[in-house]
Amino acid sequence: xxxxxxxxxxxxxxxxxxxxxxxxxDRSIGxxxxxxxxxxxxxxxxxxxxxxxxxxxxxxxxxxxxxxxEVLPAGRExxxxxxxxxxxxxxxxxxxxxxxxxxxxxxxxxxxxxxRRHLDLHERQLAEYREIxxxxxxxxxxxxxxxxxxxxxxxxxxxxxxWTGWLRHALAEFAELPGEGAGAxxx
Amino acid sequence: xxxxxxxxxxxxxxxxxxxxxxxxxDRSIGxxxxxxxxxxxxxxxxxxxxxxxxxxxxxxxxxxxxxxxEVLPAGRExxxxxxxxxxxxxxxxxxxxxxxxxxxxxxxxxxxxxxRRHLDLHERQLAEYREIxxxxxxxxxxxxxxxxxxxxxxxxxxxxxxWTGWLRHALAEFAELPGEGAGAxxx
DNA sequence: ATACGCATGTAATCTGTTACATGATTGG
DNA sequence: CCAATCATGTAACAGATTACATGCGTAT
Lengths: 187, 187
What we know:
The first copy, chain A, has 7 helices and 3 strands. With 187 residues, chain A is mainly α.
């Protein structure tokens, strides 16, 4: 129940078409709330029906034509209401941890290589976040909006820092496991 | 596509009934792959149909009667295959981060209180993990299975450490935001 | 004219959530 | 006998994923 609010947030920041939203989800919002273009189009339809957003006036109608939306006052209110309401953190669902637990009973074949690959992925993501931080949040600016957005980016950086650290630790442990030189075994 | 493998892992560790699995998901496996009893029963049915698990022999049939399952060789093979195959990390979906981004445009009302509540939740979870670590992983044991399971628990501990650290940082930032004494405002 | 990329959308399927229904067992 | 609890399950729905369909605009 958060996708509509992710979209409302994006549209309040800047009115956009479906594809533009998709691009922005790929770049920035999707770092903590991912969505595909199908989800976005479907949800835009719903939000329009519910009167929370509307098509920007001065438009072409047809299919294959760009169609931009803006947030209506009702949408802004709904977003404010949702933001203010308490919500429990959603339970974690992580495949790598599950695989390690499975590896404890069926063997570690293949897992070491993928740990290395994940480390690489997380290192890249971390580097990307740090670039964004340098570019968008140079020292000594502090509007309230900037601070909040910086805080969110900080979470991303800290989270990737956690993953890279843990993955390195995991790889070190793996190196000490019996028979983990080349990578495979099944008990 | 991981719930069946979570269940297979649990059943390889120890044959169980649906409700016993549900309990174990609440306690241990669910820390990184949560599931409700409905999901579990549905999936047990599928796994049995596919010939990956079977009912423990020596059974009563009827509804309301306990029904335990064990993993068949085909199930163990499928689990090993899945564990060894590379998988991309699933994209992050975090509501609190989304809310902060929304708060940057619609105001921070209510968010501060919930940050505090989340900090409390994550501190409790961290304490629970640490207790498990003390109880189940005293210094100086090192079977391969133990090491892998400890590694998974370590991820939980490090992750909760990240959250509590970040939430404290966020609360400190909030304290400096204009008008954030009592908690509410809308721009 | 056709092929490519942009843009919007439909459909089918799978996964997860919520609410409820039913039988068995046990303690009062 | 009754209520509570254990245990299994159904049904309906909501959310997410995957594959595909269609139309427009532009460059070759």
